[in-house]
Amino acid sequence: MKHIIGGNGPPATAQVKWLEVDEESAGQRLDNFLIRHLKGVPKTHVYRIIRSGEVRVNKGRASADTRVAAGDKVRLPPVRVSEKAAEKLDRPAPAREFPVLLEDEHLIAVDKPSGVAVHGGSGVSFGIIEQLRQARPGAKFLELVHRLDRETSGILLVAKKRSALTNLQDQFRERETGKTYLALVKGAWPASNKVIDVPLHKYLQADGERRVKVVAKDDPDGMRSITLVKVAKRISPPVPAGEGRSGGAPSAGAFTLLEVTIKTGRTHQIRVHLASQGHPIAGDDKYGDFELNKLLQRQGLKRMFLHAWRLQFNHPSGGERIELMSALPPELQKFADHAQPAPAPL
Fold first, then answer.
1. 26 FRET partner, CA 20 to 30 A, in 173, 209, 256, 303?
2. Does residue 207 share a domain with residue 325?
3. Does the pTM of the predicted model rise above 0.70?
């Protein structure tokens, strides 16, 4: 990144800047490019300055999903960072390695734990990618290939070369990858319900939080989203000691463990699609059944039961088909193991 226009006067965050996109940033979405360079600035503000036209690419207006190219000149309007955010920026992310499923000179596949963001932003000062960069100061290039929600565990790809990043992202975009998750949902999922082809629309709430909802097929703001669902197991959650079902204690009822394959990679796609069918994911704090989640916490499930279980892709160098698997984390496996098989639906 080159600073083309600077100068004396107000702090750098409070004056207009022009940034030149370098080779390492080429191909990124404009919103991601800005979020990375405007450290400490809330995402809601980043999207606001894009929508208002204050951000320019080569002197022209651009949308959040515009892909920047090497040599592009991006105008950044004056923005200010709070003192609290500035203090956080002065403290680098703690170095941390994560369990590795596969690593070579082109990529790393890590087994992401739940509760860890993949990158900093939106109230999180750092994520996996920042921690990896600190742990590997000699690495010339480390970039996320895709994302997982903070509470989702499982397989996450990190590119170690620009060529690998571009190749893998093209595979994700062209639906050449196979992404299958394990999700525990409320109720008895109908075995006949195998395909969810319902458009999704991403929006911001009044408080700036990002949310997603299903919309009609003719909605101009809807993005086509396809999810394939297969029933893996039907179970009932464990009943804590002293809370026998016959004693009148509340019961969480039946659940279904699903293998969920996404053909499109929309934000919160699995969570919203499953909830829209009346079967929210257990422990989902955004789209789930909140009273049920409280009950499940007492019964041992203290996180969302969504895990990136299997990932298939073509190796960015040799082209051979790779299949990676990530076992259920201990806390999810323990909950599933202690659950009782539920009777098959009539």
1. 209
2. yes
3. yes
